[in-house]
Design a protein that fits this description.
The protein contains 62 helices and two strands. The chain has 1370 residues and is mainly α. Strands 1-2 form a two-stranded antiparallel sheet.
Length: 1370
C-alpha cells in the first residue's frame, strides 16, 4: 500500500488534491447509486472482513457528502456496516499488536483501516445526532402531549443505535493501538475526531436523563480512555469548562465523568485542571456567564459529594470564590467544605494538619452563617445539619454553632428560618448531652462539682512542691563524692572506732539496708551512708543492689549510692526495679494521683457547664420556635410542628409546652397545617410502642393523660378532635384503651386524682364517637364520682358531668325524638343533692361543678325547669336553715353581711361565700332556662310541626294537596299573610314566655332578682369579693332573659363596670355586656362609649378582656366602627406584650374589611394628637407606622394626602403639625400622591419653619427619588429645593437669588400662603352638624376655622371640616 490516510479537518478536504502518498477520494457516488454500492460494501465485508473499508471508503464518504438528501435507511445501513467494521478491527487487532513479526505494510494497512473506519463512524454519528435533535424539536409534544409518530420512532431507533456505536469505539480504543503509529505518536486529528463525537453527543438535552445512562456511561469511559492513553488531559479540562458554560444540564454528567476519570482511570490531575479553570474565573466573568455560574456551582457540589478526598488539594483555589459576588459559587464551595468535613476530616484519628484544616473549614462555614445572601445562609445551615446528623461536628463547637443557629431563627428569610429549625432538631436528635435535664436541674450539680474542684485546687496549692530524687542527688553529689574519696583512703581504717554504734547492728536483709542508706543520705549523714554501703557488700555478696561493689572504687560506690537513692529511673537496669520506693518517689506518686483526680474533676465540671449551656440554648430555641407555630407561612409552621415532635420524642425538658401550644392548630383553615398537627399527635400519642395490645393501650393512656394534666379547657377541646378521630377509626386498640380508662377511673388500678380526671375526660371524648362507651356505664359514673363522696372531690365530679354531656343530642345530629332521661333517674338525684349540699359549703371548685351540672340537667332531663325549681328551693332552704341554726355561722365579722333589714334587726347573719354560691346558682339556672327555651324547646316545636305536616301530607292524596295549596296561597294573598310563617309564630311564643313568664311573680327566679340588684347597687355594704362577683354575673344572666329586664338594669351594670374596685368584677361585666350587645344591640348602642372606656383601665387583665370582647363585637359587625377605635390603637404600645398582640390582631382582621382602616385614620390621628391626651411623639409614630402599613391602594394614599394636608389649617399646636407631617411621611407615596402633595402646598408651607414638619416632608422626597424616572426625579428635586428654601428663609431670613426668581415666576405663592392662612381663633361660630360645607378647592381660606370647645363634653374634641367627607370617599 503506497498511500496513507490522513484524518481531514473538514469533510471536503478529502476530495481535494492531497500531498505525496496522501489518500484522496476518487469517486463521490451519486445518491441514487448509493444503495447498490452499499450492497457491494456489505458483500465485501462478508468476504474480506474489516479491511474492505480500504476499497469502499468512498461509498461511506459519499453518504456523508449527501447526508441531507439520502434516505434514512441508507444512513442506517451505512452506520451498521461501519459498526461491524470497527468491531471487526477490534477483534482482529490484538493478535497483530502482540505479534513481533509484523511487516510495515501490514501495520500501515491496519492503521489506514482504523483511521478510515473510525473517521466515517464518528462523522456519521455526529450527523445522525444532529438530525435526531432537529427532529425532536420539530416533533416536540404540544399542548395535547402527543408526539409525531414517525419522529418518535426515529428518535427511539437512534437512541438504541447510538449505544452500539459507542461500545464499538470503546472496544477498539481500549486496545493499545498506539503501536500502529510510528514512534507511537497518535496524530491529534484522530483523537479530536473521536472526542468531538463524544462531546457532540453530550450536547443532547436528554443525556442527563435516567434512560440515557448507558449512553452516558459509554461516553465517559470512551473519554477516559482518550485521556489516559491518548494525551487528552488538557483538552478534556478545557472542553468540560466550555460545555458547562453553555449546557447547564451537564453539571451532574461531568461531575460523574471527572469522578470516574480520577478514580477508575487514576487521572487525578483532571480534577486539578478543571477546578483551577473555575477558580481562576473572576467575579466579572461569572456575572457575564449567567447560566454557566449555576452549572459550575452544581458541578462543584456534586463532584464534592462524589470524591471529597480529591477536592482537598485544590480547595484553596475554590475558597477565593467565597469572597466573590456570586452567591451560587459561595453555596457550592460551602457544600464542598461540608462534604469534606463529613467524609474526610472527621473522627479522632486526624493528624495535626488534618485538625488544622478541619478547624479552618469550620471557621469558614461559621462566617457564612452571616452571609449577605439568604440562600447562602440557608444552605450553610443545611450543610451543618448534614454534619450534625453524621456526628462529624467536634464537641467543642456544639455550643457555638447552636448559638448561631438559634440566632438565625430571627432571620428575615423564611428559608433560613426553616433550615435553622431543621438544624436545631438535628442537634437535639444527636446531642452528646443529657437533654432530658433542664438548666434548673443542672444548676445545683454544677455548683456542687465546681465547689469540689475549687477545694481540690486549693488543697494542691497548699502542699509544698515535691522535689524529685534526681534533683536532690544532683545537689548532694559533689559533697558526697568528697566523702567517698575520703573513706576509701587507707588512713581511714584507723578511725574504725569512731564509727557510730548503729553500724554494729546488722540489718535483716539487703532491702532494709538500702532503705537505711537512703535515710542517711537524706539527712546529710554521708559518711554513715558510705560506710554502711561498703559493709553491705560484704554482708550481702549475692545481692543485686550491691553487686557492682565487687570492685570497690569511687565510681562503683557512687553508682551504687545513686541507684539506691534515686530508685529505678527510665535508664536504669531491671534489677533496680526491686529497690524500695523512696519517700520522694512516694510523694511524686501522690502528686501524680492528685493531678489525675484534678483533671477528671475539671473534665466533669466542663461537661456539666457544656450540658447547662446546651440546655439553656435548647430552652431558648423551644421558646422561639413555639412562637412560630402561629406564623402565616405554612412551611415554617410545618417545620415548627416537626421540631416540637422531635423534642418531645427525645424527652427534652419543657417539650410538652410546644406540643400543647400547637394543639389549637387542628382548627386551622389551612389543610396542610391541620394535617401536620394531626399527624404529629398521631405519631406522638396514638401509635404507642409495646409487646402486647394491653401494654400499647396503657402507654397510649399514659401519654394522653400526661397531656391532659393541668390542661386548659381550650386544650381539652382541641384534643377532643384528635382523640375522637382515633376512636372513630377502626383500630384494634379501642376496646382495650376504653377498658384501661375505666379501670383508672374506678380506682381498680392505683392512680392519682389528676389521672383519674384525665381518664374520665378521655372517656367523654370516646363517647363523642360511640355513645355506648358512657351510656352503658352511667350507673358507674354516678356511683363513683357523684355518690356519697362527691363533696370530697368536686373536680372529679365536674369532669364526670362533662363526660356525661357527650352523650346528649347537643353533640350529635339527631333527626328523631330528643334523647332525654326521666326526672327520677339516679343521675339527677345525685346531681341535685350534690349541688344543694355544696351550696352551703365553702369549696372553691363547687361553682365550676355546679355550672356543668345545671347544663347537663337542661341537656338531658325531661322538664328540666321543674328539677331546677326544686333545686333552688332546696338550696335556699338549706342556707336559711344554716342561718337559723347558727352553728355553722362564720364568726368573723369581716366575712359576714346582712341578708336583709329584717335579719339585721334580729341579729342574724349569713356566710358570704354560701350566699354568693346561691346567687351564682340562680344566675346559672336563669341563663340555661333561656337557652333551653330558645334551643331545645324551639327545636322540638319545629320537629313536631314537621312530623304533623308530613303525616297530614301522607293522609291526603296528591290531588287534594294541589287544591289545598292553591286555596291556601290564594287565601294568604287575600289576607296579606305571605310573610308570616309557623317559625315566626314559634319564635314569638318563646319571646313571650321569656318576657312575661320567666320573671313573673309566681316564678321562683323572680324572688332572687331584688336581692341581686341590692347587692350590686350597694358595693360599700356588700364588699365581699366573691359575693360581689357572683351577684354581678348573675344579674347579667338575668338581663339576658328579656329586653325589659335588660333596660331596667343596664344603668346599674355600667355603673358596676366603671366604679367597682374589683378587677375581676369589671372584667366579668365587660364580657356580660358584650353578650348583651349581641342579644339586644339597640338597647346597648347608646352605651358603646362606656365599653371603649375600659380599654384604658389601669389593670392589664381588664384591658385584655376589653380588647378581646370589642374585637369580637367589631369584627362580627355587632358594633359600628367609629372613632373610638383610637382607644384600641393606643393598646399597640401597651406595656403588656399579650395586649399588644391582641390589638395588633384586631387591626389585622379589621384591615380585611374594605376601606375600614382608611376611613378611620383621619379621626384616629385627630384623637391621638389631641394635646390633652399627652401622648409622646415616639408612641404616636409607633402607632401610626403600624396603621399606615394597611394603606396599600394608590387611590387611598392620594386621598389621605389631601385630607392630612387640609388638616394643617385647623391644627392649633406645633405638636399637631409635627404629627400630621410624620403621618404624611409614613404613607407609601406615589406620583399621584406627590402631585396632590404639591397641590396642597398652601396648607403647610407656613409650617415648614418647624423642624418637626420640615424633616418628615424632606424624607418623602428621599423615598420618591429612589428608582424614579429622570423627569419625575427632576420634579422631586425642585420640590425639595422649595421646601429647603422656605425652611431656611424662616430660620435665617435669607433668600437665594434662585428662589427669588422662582417666587417671581410663581407669583410669590409662598408669601401669599403665609399671608392668607389665618391664625387659629376662638371667636368664630362652629358649623352645625347638618349644614353643608364648602369644598376646600372651591372656597377661600376663610372656610377653615378652628372649632369652639363643646360645652357638653368635659374633654375638648377637635372637629374638622373634612370629617363628613370621609364616609363618602370610603
Amino acid at each position: 500500500m503506497s498511500w496513507d490516510f490522513f484524518v481531514p479537518v473538514c469533510v471536503g478536504d478529502l476530495v481535494k488534491t492531497g500531498g505525496i502518498n496522501q489518500y484522496v477520494v476518487q469517486d463521490v457516488v451519486p445518491p441514487k447509486h448509493l444503495p447498490s454500492c452499499l450492497s457491494k460494501f456489505k458483500a465485501a465485508l462478508r468476504s474480506q472482513g474489516p479491511l474492505c473499508i480500504l476499497e469502499h471508503f468512498d461509498t461511506g464518504y459519499s453518504v456523508l457528502q449527501h447526508c441531507n438528501s439520502v434516505e434514512l435507511g441508507v444512513k442506517e445501513d451505512t452506520l451498521e456496516l461501519l459498526v461491524q467494521v470497527v468491531s471487526g478491527l477490534a477483534a482482529s487487532l490484538p493478535a497483530l499488536l502482540i505479534s513481533t513479526s509484523v511487516s510495515a505494510a501490514e501495520r500501515k494497512e491496519k492503521l489506514n483501516a482504523v483511521k478510515m473506519s473510525v473517521y466515517l463512524l464518528c462523522k456519521l454519528t455526529e450527523t445522525l445526532e444532529s438530525d435526531s435533535h432537529r427532529q425532536s424539536i420539530v416533533t416536540a409534544p404540544g399542548k395535547g402531549g402527543k408526539k409525531g409518530k414517525a419522529g418518535g420512532e426515529g428518535l427511539l431507533q437512534w437512541d438504541s443505535e447510538r449505544e452500539k456505536v459507542l461500545q464499538a469505539l470503546v472496544q477498539l480504543l481500549q486496545l493499545d493501538i498506539r503501536s500502529l503509529w510510528s514512534l507511537s505518536l497518535v496524530e491529534e486529528e484522530f483523537i479530536s475526531c473521536v472526542t468531538c463525537c463524544c462531546y457532540k453527543l453530550l450536547e443532547n438535552p436528554t443525556i442527563s436523563h435516567v434512560k440515557s445512562k448507558p449512553t452516558r456511561d459509554c461516553i465517559i469511559h470512551l473519554l477516559g480512555v482518550q485521556i489516559k492513553k491518548y494525551n487528552h488531559l488538557l483538552g478534556a479540562g478545557v472542553k468540560v469548562i466550555q460545555l458547562l458554560q453553555h449546557f447547564e444540564q451537564l453539571s451532574s454528567v461531568f461531575a460523574q465523568a471527572v469522578s470516574v476519570w480520577s478514580t477508575e482511570y487514576g487521572i487525578r490531575a483532571i480534577i486539578g485542571e478543571v477546578i483551577r479553570e473555575i477558580g481562576q474565573k473572576s467575579s466579572e466573568e461569572l456575572a457575564r456567564e449567567g447560566s454557566g455560574v449555576k452549572a459550575f456551582a452544581s458541578f462543584l457540589s456534586e463532584l464534592g459529594a462524589l470524591v471529597p478526598e480529591l477536592m482537598i488539594p485544590n480547595i484553596s483555589v475554590l475558597i477565593t470564590h467565597l469572597e466573590g459576588e456570586s452567591h451560587a459559587m459561595r453555596v457550592a464551595v460551602c457544600e464542598v467544605l461540608g462534604e469534606i468535613l463529613v467524609r474526610v476530616l472527621c473522627g479522632d484519628g486526624l493528624d495535626e494538619s488534618g485538625k488544622a484544616d478541619r478547624d479552618r473549614f469550620f471557621d469558614t462555614l461559621q462566617e457564612h452563617l452571616h452571609d449577605t445572601h439568604s440562600h447562602v445562609r440557608a444552605r450553610v445551615l443545611q450543610v451543618y445539619t448534614r454534619i450534625v446528623n453524621s456526628k462529624a461536628l467536634p464537641l467543642c463547637r456544639y455550643s457555638e454553632v447552636m448559638e448561631l443557629a438559634v440566632g438565625r431563627l430571627m432571620d428575615k428569610s423564611i428559608n433560613v428560618v426553616k433550615s435553622a429549625i431543621q438544624l436545631l432538631a438535628a442537634f437535639i436528635a444527636h446531642n452528646p448531652y443529657s437533654c432530658k435535664l433542664s438548666s434548673a436541674d443542672l444548676e445545683k450539680p454544677l455548683e456542687k462539682e465546681t465547689a469540689k474542684l475549687r477545694e481540690m485546687k486549693e488543697k494542691l496549692e497548699g502542699k509544698a512542691p515535691v522535689i524529685k530524687a534526681s534533683e536532690l542527688w544532683a545537689a548532694m553529689e559533689p559533697e558526697l563524692l568528697l566523702t567517698v574519696r575520703t573513706e576509701l583512703e587507707p588512713t581511714c581504717e584507723a578511725e574504725e572506732d569512731d564509727r557510730d554504734v548503729e553500724e554494729d547492728k546488722e540489718a535483716e536483709d539487703d532491702r532494709a539496708t538500702a532503705v537505711k542508706i537512703a535515710q542517711y543520705l537524706r539527712v546529710n549523714k554521708y559518711r554513715n551512708a558510705v560506710r554502711l554501703c561498703i559493709r553491705a557488700h560484704s554482708c550481702f555478696p549475692e545481692s543485686e543492689m550491691f553487686a557492682s561493689l565487687s570492685t570497690l572504687t569511687t565510681e562503683t560506690l557512687m553508682y551504687t549510692l545513686a541507684l539506691i537513692f534515686k530508685g529505678s529511673d527510665e535508664d536504669t537496669s531491671e534489677p533496680s526495679q526491686n529497690l524500695p520506693a523512696t519517700p520522694q518517689k512516694e510523694g511524686e506518686k501522690e502528686g501524680e494521683d492528685g493531678d489525675g483526680e484534678l483533671k477528671k474533676q475539671e473534665m466533669l465540671v466542663q461537661y456539666l457547664r457544656d450540658t447547662e449551656t446546651f440546655a439553656l440554648q435548647v430552652e431558648r430555641a423551644i421558646s422561639v420556635i413555639n412562637s412560630m407555630l402561629y406564623w402565616k407561612t405554612t412551611s415554617v409552621v410545618q417545620e415548627a410542628v416537626q421540631f416540637c415532635v422531635t423534642v418531645c420524642e427525645f424527652s427534652v425538658a419543657n417539650s410538652v409546652s410546644g406540643v400543647r401550644k400547637m394543639l389549637p392548630l387542628v382548627w386551622s383553615t389551612d389543610a396542610a397545617i391541620k394535617d401536620a398537627v394531626v399527624q404529629a399527635y398521631r405519631r406522638l400519642y396514638l401509635n404507642p410502642q409495646g409487646d402486647t395490645i394491653r401494654m400499647k393501650a396503657q402507654t397510649l393512656v399514659d401519654s394522653l393523660s400526661e397531656l391532659m394534666v393541668d390542661a386548659s379547657l381550650g386544650t381539652i377541646q382541641c384534643l377532643e378532635e384528635i382523640v375522637q378521630e382515633f376512636f372513630g377509626s377502626s383500630s384494634n386498640l379501642q376496646s382495650t384503651v376504653v377498658q384501661v380508662l375505666w379501670e383508672r377511673f374506678t380506682g381498680k388500678r392505683e392512680t392519682s386524682g389528676l389521672h383519674r380526671r384525665a381518664a374520665v375526660l378521655l372517656l367523654g371524648m370516646a363517647a363523642r364517637a360511640e355513645r355506648e362507651v358512657v351510656l352503658s356505664n352511667l350507673d358507674t359514673l354516678c356511683s363513683v364520682a357523684l355518690g356519697e363522696k362527691v363533696t370530697e372531690d368536686f373536680l372529679l365530679a365536674r369532669d364526670s358531668v362533662i363526660t356525661i354531656c357527650s352523650i346528649t343530642d347537643h353533640f350529635r345530629q339527631s333527626k328523631g325524638a330528643p334523647f332525654r332521661l326521666p326526672q327520677d333517674h339516679q343521675l339527677f338525684t345525685c346531681l341535685t343533692q350534690a349541688i344543694a349540699e355544696g351550696a352551703v359549703m365553702e369549696d372553691p371548685y363547687w361553682q365550676s361543678f355546679m355550672e356543668q351540672a345545671v347544663r347537663l340537667i337542661y341537656f338531658l332531663a325531661e322538664s328540666p325547669d321543674q328539677l331546677c325549681s326544686r333545686l333552688l328551693q332546696r338550696s335556699a332552704r338549706l342556707l336559711l336553715d344554716q342561718i337559723a341554726e347558727g352553728g355553722e355561722v362564720n364568726k368573723d365579722a369581716g366575712q359576714m353581711q346582712d341578708v336583709s333589714q329584717e335579719s339585721n334587726e334580729q341579729g342574724e347573719h349569713v356566710n358570704c361565700v354560701c350566699l354568693a354560691q346561691l346567687l351564682a346558682l340562680c344566675g346559672c339556672v336563669a341563663f340555661w332556662q333561656v337557652s333551653h327555651l330558645e334551643r331545645s324547646v324551639s327545636a322540638e316545636l319545629r320537629r313536631r310541626r314537621g312530623e304533623t305536616e308530613e303525616r297530614e301530607e301522607k293522609e291526603r292524596g296528591p290531588s287534594s294537596k294541589a287544591k289545598q295549596a292553591a286555596n291556601e296561597s290564594a287565601m294568604e294573598e287575600e289576607l296579606g299573610l305571605i310573610g308570616a310563617s309557623a317559625e315566626d309564630t314559634e319564635a314569638e311564643l318563646i319571646r313571650k314566655i321569656c318576657e312575661t313568664e320567666l320573671l313573673a311573680e309566681e316564678n321562683l327566679l323572680c324572688a332572687f332578682l331584688p336581692l341581686l340588684v341590692r347587692v350590686c347597687s350597694s358595693p360599700g355594704r356588700y364588699s365581699h369579693p366573691q359575693l360581689t362577683t357572683a351577684a354581678c354575673l348573675a344579674l347579667s344572666q338575668y338581663m339576658m332573659i328579656s329586653p325589659s329586664a335588660c333596660e331596667e338594669n343596664i344603668r346599674l351594670m355600667f355603673t358596676v363596670l366603671e366604679r367597682s374596685s374589683f378587677p375581676v368584677v369589671r372584667a366579668n361585666a365587660i364580657i356580660a355586656l358584650g353578650d348583651l350587645t349581641v342579644r339586644f344591640p339597640n338597647i346597648l348602642e347608646p352605651w358603646t362609649q362606656n365599653l371603649y372606656a375600659r380599654l384604658s383601665d389601669e389593670v392589664p387583665s381588664v384591658r385584655q378582656t376589653a380588647v378581646t370582647v370589642l374585637t369580637q363585637l367589631v369584627l362580627k359587625d355587632v358594633l359600628k366602627v367609629k372613632g373610638q377605635v383610637s382607644e384600641v390603637a393606643v393598646l399597640l404600645i401597651d406595656p403588656e406584650p399579650h395586649i399588644t398582640s391582641l390589638a395588633l390582631n384586631f387591626f389585622n382582621e379589621l384591615a380585611t374589611k374594605d376601606n375600614a382602616i382608611y376611613n378611620l385614620l383621619p379621626d384616629i390621628i385627630s384623637r391621638l394628637s389631641d394635646p390633652e391626651r399627652g401622648m409622646t411623639s415616639e408612641d404616636f409614630n409607633t402607632i401610626m407606622k403600624q396603621l399606615f402599613s394597611y394603606i396599600t391602594k394608590e387611590r387611598q394614599t392620594e386621598s389621605l394626602v389631601e385630607k392630612l394636608c387640609q388638616r394643617f389649617r385647623t391644627a392649633k399646636t406645633e405638636r399637631q403639625w409635627c404629627d400630621l407631617a410624620m403621618s404624611l411621611s409614613l404613607l407609601s407615596m406615589c406620583e399621584r400622591g406627590f402631585k396632590r402633595l404639591q397641590e396642597c402646598w398652601e396648607c403647610y408651607s407656613d409650617k415648614l419653619t418647624e423642624p418637626g414638619v420640615y424633616q418628615p416632608l424632606l424624607s418623602i422626597t428621599a423615598k420618591l427619588r429612589r428608582g424614579a424616572k429622570p423627569q419625575f426625579r427632576a420634579q422631586v428635586d425642585e420640590f425639595e429645593k422649595r421646601l429647603t428654601a422656605v425652611h431656611t428663609r424662616g430660620l435665617e431670613n435669607v433668600e437665594s437669588p434662585e428662589m427669588d426668581e422662582e417666587n417671581q415666576k410663581e407669583g410669590g405663592s409662598s408669601e401669599k400662603t403665609v399671608t392668607r392662612t389665618p391664625l387659629p381663633t376662638r371667636g368664630r361660630p362652629r358649623a352645625k352638624r347638618g349644614q353643608a360645607k364648602p369644598s376646600v378647592s372651591g372656597c377661600g381660606d376663610d372656610s377653615f376655622v378652628t372649632p369652639q370647645k363643646s360645652r357638653k363634653s368635659k374633654k375638648p374634641v377637635i372637629t374638622f371640616s373634612s370629617d363628613e367627607e370621609e364616609n363618602e370617599e370610603g
